[in-house]
Recover the amino acids of this structure.
């Protein structure tokens, strides 16, 4: 099938509408198992089209069909990775900004999987351009994320900002990064740069976000939206501490912990694998000397006291996230501790 044409000039609204309707129909056909091969060919045509960004952005902003928006986000990702070397610097940055603005503007959307897809696309494109962008250009992206995580725009936006950082950290981690057809050296340079310049900052943002909502969670008589913010922040903190830090001198030893009677959602077994956490002396101020560990233990104790009478307490996401992080702190080792401590 011939690919959808995407003009680089002024938008042809009729053509954009026709393409959107074709993608919506294809998504509906797949869902209802009506001529799925033709429907898949239509979607594939969009993903393989040259420079489909205007069309995909139109679909994301105007379609009422969640699956169509999901496919449009996927098409942006495929095309941008494929055409990256030929895109101008302005187009590269505008694609990332569009994705970031989209997830913030639609923070309260019930279609979380679409939000997660657009967030993942933003993270992948940011990594693809990581070595191309100046430090000031990266900072402009992160300024927007930091503003959202501070909570000034509401808990939904705060949650989306934290989730984006989770996507970004996953994208830079060797075990969860996406294939981009680039040499290993590229991925290693990106990983090293994120670890040295941003990882601790992200951890602090997550810690501050969790701390900013805990009083509201503990004092409230009902469940509040801030619970999901705190849960996401604790999950991001755990993810960052589980990073394979480059400055580890000795090989990491894996330690298996078993939570008796606790089901870890998303795992097929009750076993979770934890590594020795050896981030190095630069992290001492954040993790050890700041009293951060005591804050986490006190938070968990307060949450347990508040919710332990409820049958779902052990399995609820905030309890699981807090316990995982506490166990991760038990695994701190290496030069983060002073030799005389």
């Amino acid at each position: 099938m011939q690919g959808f044409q995407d003009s680089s000039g002024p938008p042809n609204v009729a053509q954009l509408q026709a393409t959107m309707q074709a993608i919506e129909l294809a998504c509906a056909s797949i869902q209802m198992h009506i001529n799925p091969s033709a429907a898949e060919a239509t979607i594939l045509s969009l993903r393989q089209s040259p420079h489909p960004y205007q069309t995909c952005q139109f679909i994301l902003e105007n379609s009422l069909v969640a699956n169509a928006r999901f496919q449009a986000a996927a098409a942006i990702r495929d095309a941008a990775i494929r055409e990256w070397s030929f895109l101008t610097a302005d187009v590269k940055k505008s694609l990332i900004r569009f994705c970031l603005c989209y997830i913030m503007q639609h923070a309260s959307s019930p279609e979380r999987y679409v939000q997660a897809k657009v967030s993942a696309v933003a993270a992948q494109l940011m990594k693809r351009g990581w070595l191309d962008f100046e430090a000031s250009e990266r900072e402009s992206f992160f300024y927007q994320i930091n503003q959202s995580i501070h909570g000034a725009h509401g808990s939904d936006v705060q949650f989306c900002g934290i989730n984006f950082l989770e996507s970004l950290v996953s994208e830079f981690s060797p075990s969860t990064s996406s294939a981009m057809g680039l040499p290993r050296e590229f991925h290693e340079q990106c990983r090293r740069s994120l670890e040295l310049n941003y990882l601790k900052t992200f951890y602090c943002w997550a810690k501050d976000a969790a701390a900013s909502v805990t009083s509201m969670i503990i004092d409230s008589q009902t469940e509040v939206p801030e619970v999901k913010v705190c849960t996401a922040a604790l999950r991001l903190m755990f993810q960052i501490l589980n990073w394979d830090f480059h400055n580890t001198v000795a090989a990491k030893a894996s330690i298996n912990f078993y939570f008796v009677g606790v089901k870890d959602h998303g795992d097929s077994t009750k076993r979770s694998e934890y590594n020795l956490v050896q981030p190095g002396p630069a992290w001492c101020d954040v993790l050890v000397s700041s009293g951060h560990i005591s804050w986490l233990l006190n938070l968990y104790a307060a949450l347990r006291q508040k919710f332990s009478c409820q049958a779902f307490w052990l399995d609820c996401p905030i309890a699981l996230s807090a316990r995982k992080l506490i166990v991760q702190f038990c695994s701190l080792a290496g030069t983060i501790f002073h030799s005389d401590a």
